[in-house]
Design brief:
heterodimer; A: alpha+beta; four-stranded mixed β-sheet; 1 helix; 12% helix; globular; B: 518 residues; alpha/beta; six-stranded mixed β-sheet; 15 helices; 29 strands; 30% helix
Chain lengths: 60, 518
């Protein structure tokens, strides 16, 4: 399953979550520093939110 | 007195008759101000907690219920749940979701759609939960689960409200295959189209209660006309204001009961002519709780504590969780062995940092295992080449000087390394099943989901998944060919609990799986 983290393509296991994408990119700790994760429409996402093929998430 | 009454009677009848005798009230038929309250992805979070990115605690079942009660008093209301309610937190898991169903019954939910995680305890347990639910549980695109309803139609104030439930088609790869054995998950869009046709002339407005994720909700609204509202879940999306796609409104209320979705609909002549929606954050403010919910939350918390105190068995020796970041330990071996056995893999590799503490010799209780493995990790197995295994182990020993959590604990393989060699060339011989590792051969390697996605810098697993071709698996959901095992619905700690409960007495040793050379 390919998803995009801040426009960077990331390949993940099927059935994985926002948290897995952040771990994959080594960016989980950024949440502790106040950053949040959003979808491409600007909605905040929970870390356990399911991802699906082609989903774009943004850390900011 | 009598004369006065008689004189007024024609006037009173003249006013009253149009309201009481008209067959369907031509002025007010299909007119309603309806409130939809909704939650999704609750995952059993009965007690408020402070999320990683929050400065204050949020959620709490009693506070959620208090908010529902207050908002329900104001107008006719439907209380809906968009899936993944019964699995996740220990408060739910240790009763296999019964606690959540009891709470939902007490809160008088009107309907719920199944989420993929509702299948995590297996079909037998799911059927028990469905039989306990005092509200309809929906799943129009799930075939051969008899207790599910595809949809319900509720008449409220003369308006017929149809509610269709749909579940993610990816459920077969989002839970263990045994949990969905014999079931089929059909296309959500095609199912909704079919059910809309069935409901034509039977429902004035249609709500799709969806557990397919926000992006898929938007695609559904674009593709299928005739849906008034999609109440969504699965992606844990915090939709602050309703999204409109064509004539369809889409909402979703984040996760874990941290927010309650409120959508007010103005319905005139059977059509939605106006709306106002918002999320209300749920905060544990004293006095705002539904006090009737407190004993229920406490009852299951006490049961949870009792289960955590249950004796599983006995350790004949100390189980070493202190040295897992610098050498082979018997507790590391035990956990790696259980992973390998569970996934029926050739080998297992985990990061020592997964193991957080030791267990002393003597009785082992559930809470001891939960302390050792506090993270919500699950078992995964990936097909790795011998070369990739060597790279993984090389990475694993590259941070030994710093006591890095990536130091490997292994099963089914042995290896030697030299601490004094430069990072990246420390690994010496590696054997699997007593034979030297073949760099070209593919082996099945069990691990946890954290490492499988590249956690602690383990790139080998993630690279293998990246190289995977995909193919169609159960229910049409896409599965990567290099992923040999994945059970996201069962935490590793619970797998270990079951293993120790079954064995009774354990005495794992160290057996030179990892050898340090000069």
């Amino acid at each position: 399953m390919k998803v995009y983290v801040n426009d960077k393509p990331v390949q993940l296991l099927p059935g994985t979550t926002v948290r897995h994408a952040l771990v994959r990119e080594g960016r989980l700790e950024e949440l502790e520093r106040g950053k949040k994760v959003y979808d491409e429409w600007g909605n905040e996402l929970g870390q356990d939110g399911a991802l699906s093929e082609g989903v774009k998430i943004i850390i900011r | 007195m009598k004369r006065r009454t008689s004189a007024l009677l024609p006037l009173l009848l003249g006013i009253a008759l149009p309201f009481f005798c008209a067959p369907a009230n031509p002025i007010h038929a299909g007119t309603l101000d309806l409130r939809i309250l909704h939650v999704n992805d609750f995952h059993g979070f009965a007690e408020a907690y402070q999320p990683l990115d929050s400065r204050e605690p949020l959620g709490g079942l009693a506070y959620l219920a208090g908010k529902v009660n207050a908002l329900r008093r104001e107008k006719p209301t439907l209380l809906l749940a968009a899936g993944d309610m019964i699995q996740g937190n220990n408060w739910a898991n240790l009763s296999r979701g019964a606690s959540v169903i009891e709470a939902m019954n007490a809160m008088r939910f009107d309907a719920m759609v199944l989420g993929n995680h509702e299948f995590d305890f297996g079909q037998e347990e799911l059927n028990k939960r469905l039989s306990e639910a005092a509200f309809p549980v929906l799943g129009a695109n799930v075939e051969r689960l008899d207790r599910l309803k595809p949809y319900v139609i509720r008449e409220i104030g003369g308006v017929r409200v149809g509610i269709i439930g749909i579940v993610t088609e990816e459920t077969p790869v989002a839970t263990h295959p045994r949990n969905v054995s014999g079931l089929a998950f059909l296309s959500a869009a095609e199912t909704v189209e079919k059910k809309l046709a069935e409901m034509k002339n039977r429902a004035d407005i249609v709500i799709v209660l969806s557990h397919i994720g926000h992006a898929a909700d938007r695609a559904l609204a674009e593709k299928v006309k005739g849906i008034d509202v999609i109440v969504g879940g699965h992606s844990h999306t915090r939709v602050l204001k309703p999204v409109r796609i064509g004539d369809t409104l889409i909402v979703q209320a984040w996760e874990h009961g941290k927010a309650l979705g409120v959508l007010d609909l103005a319905i005139r002549k059977g059509k939605v002519v106006g709306h106002d929606g918002r999320l209300e954050e749920v905060k544990p403010i004293p006095g705002s709780e539904d006090r009737a919910m407190l004993p229920l939350v406490e009852k299951y918390r006490q049961r949870m504590d009792a289960i955590l105190g249950v004796r599983l068995g006995e350790a004949k020796i100390d189980l070493d969780g202190e040295n897992v970041r610098r050498k082979e330990t018997n507790l590391g071996n035990l956990v790696a062995d259980i992973l390998r056995e569970t996934a029926k893999a050739d080998a297992a590799i985990i990061n020592g940092g997964t193991i957080r503490t030791s267990i002393g010799r003597g009785e082992i209780r559930v809470k001891d295992v939960y302390s050792v493995l506090p993270f919500d990790n699950y078992v995964v197995a990936i097909a790795l080449t011998g070369k990739a295994i060597a790279e993984a182990l090389e990475h694993g020993v590259s941070g030994i000087e710093e006591g890095a959590g990536r130091f490997p604990q292994v099963a089914g393989l042995t290896f030697a390394y030299s601490r004094s060699a430069p990072k990246g060339s420390r690994i010496r011989e590696i054997s699997i099943a007593g034979k030297p590792l073949d760099p070209e051969r593919e082996y099945s390697v069990a691990t946890n989901d954290f490492l499988a996605v590249g956690g602690d810098g383990y790139r080998s697993f993630a690279e293998a998944v990246k190289s995977s071709k995909t193919f169609s698996a159960v229910g049409g959901a896409l599965m990567a060919e290099k992923v040999l095992y994945s059970d996201s619905g069962r935490w590793l700690r619970d797998v270990v609990v079951e293993y120790i409960r079954e064995k009774g007495t354990i005495a794992p040793g160290t057996e030179r799986r990892i050898t340090e050379r000069p």
